[in-house]
Amino acid sequence: MCFFRDDKGKVVALSDICPHRGASLSQGDCHFKGTVACPYHGWVFDGEGECISVLSEGPNSRIPGKVQARKYPTRTLKGMVFAWIGDSEPAPIEEDVPEEFFEQESQILYRIADWAVDWRVALENSMDSHVYYVHRDSILMFARGPLDPYGRSPRIRPVFVGNGFNVIWGDLQAQGNPRRSWGFRDYFNIMRGKLPYQDTHEGLGRWPKSKWRLLLNWVFVPANKRRWSRPLTTTNPLWGAGHHLPGMFRTDMRTHMYTRMCVPIGDGSTRIVYYHTTRPGSLLGRIYERVQFLLWHNWVMNIQFSNQDAKIMVSQRYDTQEKLSGTDAEIIQWRKLLQRVAIEGRGVLKDLQAEHLAKEMDTTEAEGFAVDQLQEQGLEDVPKFLAGSVSGDD
């Protein structure tokens, strides 16, 4: 797409393909206010996509008024531009954009990165149990405390959240709340063996190998505590923690909402947009949040933590034959949801909301469940979907 400002200063989006000879409009120039000129022959288009002049043919050209570039509906919110690229009438933007973008009090800070991976691989990365292993040496994991039982639970329950899924980890009640505050006594009891920290793998040994990693928790846990923002709560259950269509992951970090959106930008290439949302109660709070984001959260989460993911995913393919585990239950449900929406259209989401369709999947159901086995669940078009040839009404 080609983005520029029209004569009223509003950001508009046109197809990046010039209707004349197919040159890239985004490589052109804005010689005149509210217009963009194709770099090839100087065809000038206004904010409605109308060709109003042809610089290479002069003022007497017969083209103006007869040719139009495709225009996409856009909406600018909190400094971000959202575009509807479907062929149908635009759906209400509130169905695809989180609620904080419409709140005056919320502050949204963001970072953009490009990954050389398919968008499906990038999105599903946040649906499984790799965090406990891949990110074991990340600052973020050290800052969360010593225990992470939810990342090791083999039993989870996908729960439909309006336009996607969240998960309930089945072992949480048995293991306690992994996000409570940890004090000196807790660390001391772990070192004495009175609180669980290491798992024993028969014939191999213990994991993590050493308890001395806990010293890093003492260093980084205080740095992760915040005092200048009110707890961020969602008023609309549609935008709670979990995975949301079209390609979004959200998680509640207690004092801010972390959101990662995966946008396909080419074959095997994905643009990752990170949103960091807070609700500061004062100007001083807004300044503090921005400084803290720039000096701490942006590097800890969006760079160091996420680069560990990117390093793993760059060698993955979306069409690999898989042998999934019980912790992949959400991935299975997510793929089923994508398939239904692709075939039946986004209207199926309202039906699912009414039905509250998300039943518990046992570990035995998820074990050995591979991509090609989705066909056995009555989803005949899965190969076409994986190949990108199945499309919905948007």
In short:
This protein is an alpha+beta fold and 394 residues long.
Task: Supply database-style keywords.
single chain, alpha+beta, Rieske Iron-sulfur Protein, Alpha-D-Glucose-1,6-Bisphosphate, Chain A, domain 4, 11 helices, disordered C terminus
Distance between the termini: 16 Å
Q: Order of strands across the widest beta sheet?
A: 9-17-16-15-14-11-10
The CATH topology of the largest domain: Alpha-D-Glucose-1,6-Bisphosphate, Chain A, domain 4
Low-pLDDT stretches are 170-181, 357-394
Radius of gyration: 24 Å
Q: What CATH architecture label of the largest domain applies?
A: 2-Layer Sandwich
Class by alpha and beta content: alpha+beta
Order of helices and strands: EEEEEEEEEHHHEEHHEEHEEEEHHHHH
Number of strands: 17
Describe the structure.
The protein is an alpha+beta fold. It has 3 domains: 2-72, Rieske Iron-sulfur Protein; 105-150 and 162-313, Alpha-D-Glucose-1,6-Bisphosphate, Chain A, domain 4 (2-Layer Sandwich); 151-161 and 319-394, no CATH class. It has 11 helices and 17 strands. It has helices spanning 119-124, 131-134, 139-144, 172-175, 184-191, 214-220, 283-313, 329-344, 348-355, 363-366, 382-386; strands at 2-5, 11-14, 35-37, 43-46, 51-54, 71-72, 74-77, 80-83, 107-115, 156-160, 164-169, 199-201, 205-207, 242-244, 248-252, 257-266, 269-278. The strands form 5 sheets. A 7-stranded antiparallel beta sheet has the order 9-17-16-15-14-11-10. The longest helix is centred in the C-terminal third of the chain and has 31 residues, at 283-313. It is elongated, with a radius of gyration of 24 Å. The model is unreliable at 170-181 and 357-394 (pLDDT under 50).
